[in-house]
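re the bet — no i am not wrong, look at it urself. input seq straight from the record:
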Amino acid sequence: MTSPPDIVRHSADGAELDAFLVPWDTDIFGFPVAQISQLDLGPPGTSSSAVFDSFETWCSSHDVRLVSCRLDHTRIRESMELEAHGFRFVEIVYEPRRDGLGDVPSPGHDIEVTDATQADLPAIAAIAATAFTTGRFLLDPRLPPDLSHRRYASWVRSAFTAPPQRVLKAESAGELVGFFIVERRDDASVYWHLTAVAPEQQGRGIGLSLWRTMLRRHAAEGATFVETTISGHNLAAINLYARLGFAFPSAGMTLHRFVDRAS
């Protein structure tokens, strides 16, 4: 959401664990939040206790209360090791991808997509604060849902000042109907960081038309393919992406460890 974090590597006995503090989530939740970005336990039969001891020392030194980790769904050994250290499964995520953007049908609604400005920020942030119901922080019952909603609104605000992310607004008949936070990557592909239809516009076919409009826009810009990430709990999004011709090449599992200092 902002500049790349400083990654700290913990290594011992052939195992490696990379982690970093997440300042944008720390600001929202009011306590230190961290993320494990890479976990390699080494050859089967080797011990990972030393690398986790190092990680625990690092967490204690920063008073980290919430840690997240996302693994490929096939990495059962790593997920079991995380569970042994207090992590709990939260969600399955998919990373849909669409290659070949030249055959996207015409949208059913007339939607105009343009760069958002600071004047659009309040309305877009309001959508972000209410549109998402299947995010991993909302799924974790140990975390206050109002903070999770606030996190998405904060994401929109930071994207206005965090290149290479761009905030695009979607309007129909002059009315704001949704937004996309997108990133154009060096290989000419596009990554959709955050996408939403205004809650009051849902159920009217706006989503399908908006997603088709975005795909056609990227095709006109010369994009090679489009990727994003969606929660396995978001069945509406899964169906939408399947209808749009996206493939689902991989699945991941998200785990959280939360330490409640009040308990």
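see?? Residues 231 and 259 are 24 Å apart (CA to CA). told u. also The chain has two domains: 8-93+253-258, 97-247. so pay up
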